[in-house]
UniProtKB/TrEMBL annotation, chain A:
<dbReference type="Pfam" id="PF01547">
    <property type="entry name" value="SBP_bac_1"/>
</dbReference>
<keyword id="KW-0732">Signal</keyword>
<feature type="signal peptide">
    <location>
        <begin position="1"/>
        <end position="23"/>
    </location>
</feature>
<feature type="compositionally biased region" description="Low complexity">
    <location>
        <begin position="29"/>
        <end position="51"/>
    </location>
</feature>
<protein>
    <submittedName>
        <fullName>ABC transporter substrate-binding protein</fullName>
    </submittedName>
</protein>
<dbReference type="Pfam" id="PF12010">
    <property type="entry name" value="DUF3502"/>
</dbReference>
<dbReference type="InterPro" id="IPR006059">
    <property type="entry name" value="SBP"/>
</dbReference>
<dbReference type="InterPro" id="IPR022627">
    <property type="entry name" value="DUF3502"/>
</dbReference>
<dbReference type="InterPro" id="IPR050490">
    <property type="entry name" value="Bact_solute-bd_prot1"/>
</dbReference>
UniProtKB/TrEMBL annotation, chain B:
<dbReference type="InterPro" id="IPR051393">
    <property type="entry name" value="ABC_transporter_permease"/>
</dbReference>
<dbReference type="InterPro" id="IPR000515">
    <property type="entry name" value="MetI-like"/>
</dbReference>
<dbReference type="GO" id="GO:0055085">
    <property type="term" value="P:transmembrane transport"/>
</dbReference>
<keyword id="KW-0813">Transport</keyword>
<feature type="transmembrane region" description="Helical">
    <location>
        <begin position="218"/>
        <end position="235"/>
    </location>
</feature>
<feature type="transmembrane region" description="Helical">
    <location>
        <begin position="117"/>
        <end position="136"/>
    </location>
</feature>
<dbReference type="Pfam" id="PF00528">
    <property type="entry name" value="BPD_transp_1"/>
</dbReference>
<keyword id="KW-1003">Cell membrane</keyword>
<dbReference type="InterPro" id="IPR035906">
    <property type="entry name" value="MetI-like_sf"/>
</dbReference>
Amino acid sequence: MFGKQRKALNVVLSLVLALTLLAACSSNSNSGANTTPTPTTTANGTNAEGNQPTAASGIDTSQRVELQFYMLGNAPKDLPKVEEQINEWLIEDLNATVKFNYTTWTDWDQKYRLLLSTGQDVDLIFTAEWTQYQQYAKSGAFLPLDELLSVAAPKLYEFVPADMWEAVKIDGSIYTVPATYKEYVTGGFVWREDLRVKYDLPKPVDIPTFEAYLEGIKQNEPSIQPLALGGAVDATLEDSYMEFQRQRVGALPYGLHASYHDPANLVGYWGSDEHLADLKVYKNWADKGYFSKNELNETDSNQDKLINGTAAAMLADNPTRFNNTLNQMKSLHPEWDLAYHPFGLTNGYATPVHPIHNGFAIPKNSKKAERALAFYELMVTDERYNLLTQYGFEGVNYTVEDGYYKMVGDNSTNGFAREAMNGWAWRNPDYMLFEPSYDGVEAIFKELDKVQVPDIYTGFAEDYSSYQAERAALEQVEKQYLFPLMAGLVEDVEGGLKTFMEKANQAGLEKIQESYKQQWLQYLQENGIY
Amino acid sequence: MVKKKGVLYELNKNKILFLMLLPTLLYFLINNYLPMIGIYYAFVQFDFHSSNLFQMAFVGLKNFEFLWKSGKLVQLTINTIGYNIAFIVLVNVLSISVAVLLSEIRGKWFKKVTQSILFLPYFVSFVILSVIVFNLFNYEQGVLNTMLEKLGSEPINLYAMPKAWIFLIIVFYLWKNFGYSMVIYLASITGISDEYYEAAKIDGANIFQRAWHITLPMLKNTFVILLLFALGGIMKGQFDLFYQMVGNNGLLFSTTDILDTYVYRSLRVTFDMGMATAAGVYQSVFGFILIMTVNGIIRKINKDYALF
């Protein structure tokens, strides 16, 4: 009898074990699929017999190789077809094939780090200031390209202007190939123009007019949330507000502030009177109900909330993204309208995008660096490669009408939308195709061109190795004590700020700020900005 | 006592059996033991210039610093263990009682339906759970506040009440998970021989006495083993649950932050191999000590019930 029970127990146990094993398997395959692609090196073996490549550059192409190309985001549906076509050309041109890998947007930052630090087979990878290009380059994750460029990609070396090569240099070496397309990614107010006209509200050009607009929406449209912020209030509220109101030189971290006009004067902003005043502004907005009491837990994107009409303004967005939002809104609600006022027009200056903003680098342990660079040259400078990887197949995915790009079908039926490969970095202004609505963006750019000044912040490469632990600890304190303050959830703003400063100092804020300041001043001096 | 023979003799005697064991051993060796070399990452300064792990500079415990720098390590450990103990105790109490009740129900159709309904939430993803929770409790349009307003009372902002979330997180965890362990208990009740119950009935035991004196003691084995399994993961917390339900809302961190969410947030900005490994090592060592202790205690009480 006891044996019988024992047996039943065994069955149950093996069931449990099997289930946990299954669970483990599935989670493994999830993460595995994204981070570790099967190594399909065809470096040795399948060398085509006597198929001599026609590449002009002076590199050795006698061995067939497969290049591993990594980009962030989601792969378009038609990528395999595009890849097939590219490979057909590439075998002829460079005796190589390429595999386009995409990380998806889920945990891309961890995946990015793992790709670089685990010695995986990666030959080309996207870089930007928001993927910490400067820090990675400084710590030696990428291959210096200075000498390689003239050998493997002479055309590309010519194509990118010298001052851009200069601008992406970290410690005197080039580590990435910058994009040459000039755009602005600076902020500007976004609001519902149809509602503004309907209720005769002022056009938001500064904070008082913006507040008046929000108030008008609150009064007249009680079901619409006047301002969309989302959970990342550090970026959507503080950074934007600082960019506009205090003309901060860039999104400086650790509560530091320096104005664009006086960059050497780097001071602690957190805990200052200015900070307190700004927090009171946010609190005031929250109290008046301009944004939700649960903004920190919001998961919908701000743009989506504008599109579906649950919110009526954003404090800041860049011109291109504003245009996307407008287009998507128009396709759903043709009678609605969205308008934009770039901060630059009020403040009298605007910085065009820094060359670091979009680029491609070759990781240090790539064994096919020459071929990778030569391939990247083709992507940028060869019209066939460029058009195919930016817009898909002409006639199938898009058509050109009066010089404008026109998508075949719509987003759901078309397997390759415009720039679906996230090809921001290999955009070539000579070949670029735009939708008619881009004219609006271009008009904004033209206006900003009149007040343009160089970006002096993005070229700075912070080295945080000496305060890594403090940095991580500070991040926690910021989330726990500063975020609720910014979202207007703390009744006593002054007391809340005091608590935050206490905790921040405990985590090592002063040490971080001091070290950062030292590096910053040194950077300004070396680059002749100071 | 049999005379002790050498390992080689044992291997030779049961070579077929050992051969059958080999794939499993290899599986664990490759997937669970070899990666442990990576623990060394916790003690070095990661850099791109060294081609392998052992060339990197040894920094001792520096990578562990961030865990206590913000002064939250104790609170995090308490939160993590506290929640898990609540989960383990409540899930077991609830699932055992419901399993006993269900086993007494003879209506096959009703039993199956109930079982399925209780089991289904287990398949709801945490992301969806977070959306459900947000729609229930958000201040402006949440179900709860809409109801309160209709009833004429003041709306409440749950997302600003840290204490409430201790309760909410436990409730949603139970909702999602207790069906799963209930099915396991139900299966093990099915395995209890009917003879016991018949004998008890003849002796005049009522339904409660039967449950108390037969079913419960018979479930002890399953309970102990499920308990040990659960304890092994006590330091791991339930990352998805906490992260999805609380998200970036710093106001709630004092009561809802566990080690996993803390580490995740720290390393999102500074994804450093050394620090990430250090956090993992801390959790593993703590979990190891815990399971050894509990297993030891169980061994002392009753050797048969111990896991090893």
